[in-house]
Amino acid sequence: MTNPTSRDYNKASVLDVVLSHAPLTRNQLIELTGLSKATVSRAVEELRADGFVVDGGVDEITGRGRRSTYLDLPGTTGHVAGVSFGAQTTGVLVTDLRGREIQHVTVPTADHQEVEDAARWLVDLIAEAARSAQGPLRQIVAAVPGRVRGGTEIFGPAESMKIFAGPGLQQAVENLVEAPVLLDSDANASLLGILTNDATIRNAALFSVSTILNFASCTDHELARGSTPTFGDIGVLSSGVGDESLDDLLSTRGLLRFARKRGLDLERIEDLWLQPHTEAPHAEVLQAFTTAIVTAVSVVAVTLDPESVYFVGRLRPLVDVVLPQVRGRLDQSLPAVPEIRTGPHQIGLSTAQGAVYACLTIVQERLRDAVLGARQQNRLSQKSAPAF
Question: Checking phi first, is residue 287 left (phi over 0); if not, alpha (psi -120 to 50) or beta?
Answer without folding.
Answer: alpha
